[in-house]
Amino acid sequence: MKDNSIKIGLFGLGTIGGGVAELIMGFPGRWKERLGVDLILHKAMDLNPDNASRLGIGQDQLTDRPEDITNNPDVDIVVELVGGTGAAREIVTASLNAGKPVVTANKALLATHGGELFSYARQRGLKIAFEASVGGGIPLIRSLREGLGANQITQCLGILNGTCNYILTRMTNEGAGFHDVLADAQRLGYAEADPSFDVGGTDTAHKLAIMAALATGRLPRLDQIKVEGITSVTPLDISFAKDMGFVIKLLAVLQIHEQQANLSVYPALIENSHQLAAVNGPFNAVFVHGDWVGDIMLYGAGAGRRATASAIVADILDLAREKLSGGSSLPAAALGRADFDPEPLAISSRDDISGKYYFRFAAHDKPGVLAALAAVLGDNQISIATMIQKGREQEGGAVPIVILTHEARESAVLKAIKAIDSLPVVDHPTIMLRVI
Amino acid sequence: MKDNSIKIGLFGLGTIGGGVAELIMGFPGRWKERLGVDLILHKAMDLNPDNASRLGIGQDQLTDRPEDITNNPDVDIVVELVGGTGAAREIVTASLNAGKPVVTANKALLATHGGELFSYARQRGLKIAFEASVGGGIPLIRSLREGLGANQITQCLGILNGTCNYILTRMTNEGAGFHDVLADAQRLGYAEADPSFDVGGTDTAHKLAIMAALATGRLPRLDQIKVEGITSVTPLDISFAKDMGFVIKLLAVLQIHEQQANLSVYPALIENSHQLAAVNGPFNAVFVHGDWVGDIMLYGAGAGRRATASAIVADILDLAREKLSGGSSLPAAALGRADFDPEPLAISSRDDISGKYYFRFAAHDKPGVLAALAAVLGDNQISIATMIQKGREQEGGAVPIVILTHEARESAVLKAIKAIDSLPVVDHPTIMLRVI
Which of A219, B255, B302, B372 is 20 to 30 A from B378, alpha carbon to alpha carbon? Predict the structure, then answer.
């Protein structure tokens, strides 16, 4: 052991950074027991001075110059919790440049600049640890990288955005509409004032990109991910799904087949008996299939001050142990590969995707309508597994006709929907959801 | 890198060892990609020569002298999969003695001799890796040790024996009796010819001991674990539990309160809405509570050739990376502590335990019986949450009266049962199960 302490430099003392400071400073005996040396919050920086004083961080621990942390010879590990992709990128680069490993929870940064940052870390023989970037407190990164490290991962299905899962859970339990629940979620602090990043699926896509990098060794570009959010999920579709034994969840979907990946974010129907169906409220979970391990699920709090701080400090402890033991990690151990490939992932053509589908048609309540719909589906080799038609909502109005298909090609499905939506007996665009 | 390959010495080519050999030999490109060097099955030993030939292991890879593996200067990592606590203990000790790290799936060995073996490994600066010893392919050991390494673990609830969970799941789904399902499970290969180690709870207790060591840094003695199996679980109790919204599962229970642990294995009632209630068939899961991360659950295949091989090869890859990077681990990193204490864990007095309880009384169907039972419960400060009395099973026979209690002290519960069982109106000993 080179020193009798490990010293942390921390950028950001907001919700998450404040939790990390509190955890590090609150349990000195725990770190001494687990590391054999002290773990010390040596320097911190935050633009809002109130954050530091609320946490009892003294003036001598504070700085307003980033280089007092990144270039500080006493700092062993830098923790970046400022968010965004501007200052955060500079902090990570400057820290690596000064020979310091970095811990970050910043999925946006890794999903957009991960290729460049991991390459630079590899050149410098340093690690970027990011357990908190996907699934909050769930030890997902380690599990994909190490625990399942002997497997070829063929599928990951993730409920990765607590805001969306909270909203969908309440819509399911209460039969309420999206906008009503969103407003309440904002009031209760489960959704941001501008919720578009969450409910539009972008946050889930960032996490999916990181998960895909761990599963394949290659970071996808964000434009390779097909993203749908939950804004168009209706209580009516949730209710039809329920009648057929399904719940609707926003999923990050990674499927790997013959070296090609399919990366999508969409609201999907999940059978009630599936482990993911019981993941409710703000909880997250990832259901992984590996060629040798079979099915694995990891479940826990995907966000929040304490759970996220738990993951960040776990990363700090790992990097601290590595430093104390004098181990120099393999270059790209960040992604569990000796040979992390900076080339982006090969993506399957969308024409090759197939699956089961849920359709809700809004058709006139007239003789022959069902025959017309069924004819289009049949022409496109789409066969029907289940059909529900409920009474008309209003006299003379359109009636919802719901169909679950057997396995069908997505290209055929999209073609059929286009044809059906142009039929004169169809009132509104067809709702299509995928079934897991 | 010191060499262009990592060489494995493997003891045991049975179900699990054969899977490990198959995985290592079957995917050379995968290991080269992930380690940067080849991973080679250098030497193997098994008492049955058919096992090796079935796997296509050549004569030059085989030996019948253990020291050809443990003392072989070419072997980098020894994998012990012979089971039991005799030869396995000698293999592990001899390997450590020769400076080789060890991978084992042997929960019986670790639960009975772990203190001695981990101490010896610590003295030698070596690791014993044991991901496969608890929860099969589930990355549980890493998660407790590293992913949740910043937490004080306060509770672990584990479904850790696939045989028991398979039997209880079928009893629940089919209303069948224990012995009928057991016989069928034996026929299908889900239970051993002598099932007592599984159904009596001993296997679960071994895994609980290892989990407790990871959560607390101290290995408990096996006699500190109170163990009940599933042999006395009846379809009647499963059915009553179902009526009240519960399932019955065999649980490994670790509770830690003020530095004292409660370690038990027992069949327990779990509410249908609990994540563990949906863990069915041969699957395993562990539900963990940490002071910062909150609730976490890990779910997957707890046994079987492929899932177990997945965990063993994950350990091999980790030790290989460590060797390739030249890192010398901290002495007791096996348990995630700098200071693994060989003293056994402090165990709470059973008088301090409290919880909710399920009772099934077999009482005569006479006026005043319920009042007599209720009086004994009241005298012992046990209050009733729910009661079910069903019609008599046979004319003049005893009727089952089922009671769920509110929180009560276990010492008072045991005293009350003793008093009730001595009442003249009570026909058979009371069935008591704990409620999670």
Answer: B255
Percentage with pLDDT > 70 across chain A: 94
Q: What is the mean pLDDT of residues A298-325?
A: 94
pLDDT band at A392 (very low <50, low <70, confident <90, very high): low
What pLDDT shows up at residue A75?
Answer: 98
What Å distances lie between residue A79 and A100, A313, A356, A364, CA to CA? Answer: 10, 10, 43, 59
∠ Cα B63 B68 B72 (to 5°): 135
Core vs surface per residue B132-146: b (16+ CB within 10 A) or e: bbbbbbbbbbbbbbb
* Residue contact A292–B306, C-beta within 8 A: yes
CB B47 within 8 A of CB B13: no
Closest-CA residue of chain B to A319: B146
Query: What are B347-405's pLDDT values in tens digits?
Result: 887 777 899 999 999 888 888 888 999 999 999 999 999 999 876 555 556 789 999 99
Helical (H) or strand (E) element with B337: none
Strands B102-104 and B128-129, how do they pair?
A: parallel
Residue B200 structure tokens: 């009596």
Q: How far apart are CA B138 and CA B65, in angstroms?
A: 33
Phi, psi of B105 (to 5 degrees): -110, 15
Which of A33, A150, A278 has the CB atom closest to B317's CB atom? A150
Please tell me the pTM assigned to this model.
Answer: 0.93
The more confident residue out of A332 and A136 is: A136
Name the amino acid, one letter, at A338: A
Lookup: tokens for B201 = 């709870």
Instruction: Read off φ and ψ for residue B251, nearest 5 degrees.
Output: -115, 140
Neighbours of B187 (CB within 10 A): 9
Non-local (6+) Cβ contacts of B367 within 8 A are none
Domains and CATH numbers, chain B: 5-139+305-335 (3.40.50.720), 147-300 (3.30.360.10), 351-435 (3.30.70.260)
Contact A293 B307 (CB under 8 A): yes
A234: buried, middle or exposed (CB in 10 Å: 19+, 13-18, 0-12)? middle
Residue contact B146–A143, C-beta within 8 A? no
From first CA to last CA, the distance across chain B in angstroms is: 51
The verdict on a CB contact (< 8 Å) between B306 and A299 is no
Q: SS in 3 state form for B241-299?
A: HHHCCEEEEEEEEEEEECCEEEEEEEEEEEECCCHHHHCCCCEEEEEEEECCCEEEEEE
Q: What is the dihedral of CA B343, B349, B355, B361, to 10 degrees?
A: 120
Pairing label, strands A153-159, A283-290: antiparallel
Q: In this predicted structure, what is the pLDDT of residue B394?
A: 59
**pLDDT-wise least confident of B78-92, B123-137, B350-364:** B350-364
Q: Which residues contact A258 (CB under 8 A, 6 or more apart)?
A: none
Structure tokens at B350: 């059973």
**Closest partner residue to B314 among A34, A35, A147, by Cβ?**
A147
pLDDT of the residue at B330: 43
Close Cβ partners of B27 (under 8 Å, ≥ 6 residues apart): none
CB A160 within 8 A of CB A135: yes
Average pLDDT over residues B15-28: 97
Residue A16 token pair: 């998450």
β partners of residue B159: B285
> What residue type is assigned to position B252 of the chain?
A
CB contact, 8 Å: B290 with chain A? Answer: yes
Q: How far does Cα A352 stand from its chain's mean position? A: 24
Cβ pair B324, B37 in contact under 8 A: yes
Residue B23 corresponds to which tokens in the numbers above? 């995985």
Q: How far is B75 from chain A (nearest CA, A)?
A: 20
Q: Other C-beta atoms within 10 Å of A434: how many?
A: 19
* pLDDT band, residue B217 (cuts 50/70/90): confident
For β-strands B398-405 and B354-364, DSSP reports them as antiparallel
The mean pLDDT value for B126-154 works out to 95
